[in-house]
Amino acid sequence: MISKKLLFISLTSTLLFGSAGSVSLSSLDGSWILRTMDGHKVSSARAILDFNSKHKKIDGYDGCNRIEGKLNLHTNDMYSSKLKTYRYECLNSTKRFVSARLHQAIGEGFTIQKGKMKDEEGIVLKSKNHTLFFKKLGKSSITDFLK
Questions:
Q1: Contact (CB, 8 A) for 136 and 147
Q2: d(C-alpha 92, C-alpha 41), whole Å
Q3: What is the CATH number of the domain that holds 93?
Q4: Which residues contact residue 142 at a Cβ distance below 8 angstroms, ignoring those fewer than 6 apart?
Q5: How high is the pLDDT of residue 10?
Q6: Would the pTM count as exceeding 0.90?
């Protein structure tokens, strides 16, 4: 049963996200808003990752809390980060869902590739257990978005 679910998720991800290509860390600079997580639409959580290649940092908002961490490169395309956050009460179930899985995905290590979901260009952050699709947020930063 579980293997059928994994196969379904893999096939769905491939179909939804289209062809993927690798990306350089510097091309990620800026803010990215989370659109889908593991096949679920989660844009209402307003989770954002802000990449800074010069300082090898990642920060943003996990749906409940501000987050920050240092990007660690393990192989040519595998990253991880131990995120720091201040925990505040999070009453919204979608935001809790996103927050927990975003921390898990980033902590367990992830790859980033170009992706496309429906008509949106973006990136796919893929870890051992999670697949996340992000869309670029223009020129603003996370700080501007949260004001």
A1: no
A2: 15
A3: 2.40.128.270
A4: 31, 48, 50, 59, 60, 61
A5: 42
A6: no
